[in-house]
Amino acid sequence: MTVMPDDLQRQRAGNIETPSGKWRSGENFPVGSFLIRRDLRPHVHAFYRFARNADDIADNPAFSAEEKIKRLDRMTAILDGTTGHDSPAAAAMRESLLATKVTVQHCHDVLRAFRLDAVKLRYRGWDDLMDYCRYSASPVGRQLLDLHGESRSTWPASDALCSALQVLNHLQDCADDFRRLDRVYVPLEDLTAEGTSVEVLAGSAASPALRRVFDGLLDRTAALIDKARGLPPLVVSPGLRWESAVIVELADRLLRRLRHGDPLAMRVKLHRFDFFIAFLTGVSGKFRR
Question: Which of these ranges, 30-44, 78-92, 138-152, 158-172, has the smallest mean pLDDT?
Answer without folding.
Answer: 30-44
